[in-house]
Write a structure and sequence with these properties.
The protein is mainly alpha-helical and 326 residues long. 69% of the residues lie in helices and 4% in strands. It contains 16 helices and two strands. A two-stranded antiparallel ribbon has the order 1-2. Strand 1 and strand 2 form a beta hairpin. It is elongated, with a radius of gyration of 29 Å.
Length: 326
Amino acid sequence: ESIHYIASSFSEYGGAKLATEFLEPLKEKNYVPAILIKLAELYENRNAYAEAIASYRVLLDFYPFHATAPQFFDSIVENYETAEDDEAAIKTREEIITYFRPGSAWQHHYPSGNLSEAGLNSAKSNLVYLGTTFQALAQAADSLQAYTVAIEKYLDYIQTFPKEENTSEIHYYLAECYYNTAVYDKAAAAYYDVTSLYAHSSYREKAAFNRIFSFVQLFQPPDSTQVDTLIFKPFVLTSDSLALPVGNSTAGNLLSASNDFCTYFPESEWIDQVYMKFGEVLNTLQHYVYAAAAYQKVYDQKPASQYRPAAAINVGQCLFDGSYFD
């Protein structure tokens, strides 16, 4: 009751500024945090968001390692957002990430245990929030600047928290940002990381599929003066190793991604689309037998693929173009 009375008095006269002057010499007393918390709550109940934020700031200044410091920061963010000051809320989230991340003063003060974990969780959740928020803004406004911020946050998360349950999801979001900004080589690399680094991720199949279409965007028709050879171990169309001339690296990358998908995700709902693309590229490279084999995979698919009629025509065309008239 006395704590409520003192906090109420400060809320009526002088606010957080007077509370700071009066309570700073007493901040080692165990009742001071309770007074400041009550002061912030009183302001919140009156929708006096700036004053509530100022009260939480006094708490953090007096007690930078207080057990509920993550909650103080959360309340500051909530007050800014309720007051529709999104810019200040974002800046506070940035501050939270710095305050609690690995290597911070907080983590040195609490090197292990629940309070260390609470700080890390706060840093992680705010990094994810900022990444996904800026990605959504980028998609809505087609903003390269917003995509750049989202990419920065996702890279930070992946590098700082590489083994979290949601890291593969964040890595997938990173790949999407690269793809949507037409940085297709980085998109393909990021999609590949999702498939190769996270064995149990639900995003692996989708990432492998999108990797193919990142390379589609980079594909250049082969130049007859270029001779690159790609070794497949195995080549899914022959179930054996194969050294295949591919003309240039863009063709090789596209074939490799297609081969990987068909090898590791043979039951995928997208397998027919991938074999059709596989056949198209092989045909462009004049590997007619292998192109026909890719189209044949679609033709033979059960239940029948929607691409079956096109696959049948393409099988015949490839064999004709390769002069296989038998």
